[in-house]
């Protein structure tokens, strides 16, 4: 742009220089041509205006050229950015496709696991129910009700597989804990065809004893006969001590409690 301006200025200077020389020559020659001189001055002024207009057009063209150059650079930059953006999108799409494929594989694995776990959990519920029925009859009705409720939840479709499995594990854990605890509680049992309220002593899952409320009779559960058997009066004292220990009324101590041998009733 500076080169164009210089050209216009040089042309203008030459015009003025030539005009000055021409005016001097004419002035020396004769004064009668003053009218022609004025006319020539007007012509020179018009030429000067045209030169200025030309310079303005040059400046405008230069500015337009610069603007077009900047726009070209912007478009070039945008095109480069667009290409990079498209490349990133393609890479992201590939990653997403890989993730979808992985998730589909996991889903198929989960479905396969569900197909195997559902029958297993049903079998575990049935096993737990049978175990409670054949176990020592402590809190038996309460435990059976819990298993029935568990069965309804596991066999229904309203819970997620993970929730069903969690409930099943909690039920098994609760049953396992009975084997590590000592407990005394009051319950109604069948003795000689009659319902009698007694005090029960549970020693883990090893043995279950009863003591009548008047303390006159004691007995234990016979697993083989699946019935209560009466113990000799000599064991009543030990059972009373066991009840006190289980209730936390006295410190733990060694007890000599009888264990019924399967099939002997002794």
Tell me what the structure shows.
With 266 residues, this protein is α+β, with helices and mostly antiparallel strands. The chain has a domain at 182-266. The protein contains five helices and five strands, in the order ααααβββββα. Strands 1-2-3-4-5 form a five-stranded antiparallel β-sheet, with helices on one face. Strand 4 and strand 5 (227-230) form a beta hairpin. Residues 1-34 have low confidence and may be disordered.
Q: Care to give the gist of this entry?
A:
With 266 residues, this protein is of the alpha+beta class. 65% of the residues lie in helices and 13% in strands.
Kindly list the characteristics that best describe this protein:
266 residues; alpha+beta; five-stranded antiparallel beta sheet; 5 helices; rod-shaped
Give the overall shape, derived from the CA principal axes.
rod-shaped
What strand order characterises the main sheet? 1-2-3-4-5
Distance between the termini: 122 Å
Measured as a percent range, the helix fraction is 55-70%
Total E-strand runs: 5
Count of alpha and pi helical runs: 5
Helix-strand blueprint:
Blueprint: H1 2-29, H2 34-134, H3 140-155, H4 161-178, E1 182-191, E2 194-203, E3 207-212, E4 218-222, E5 227-230, H5 236-246
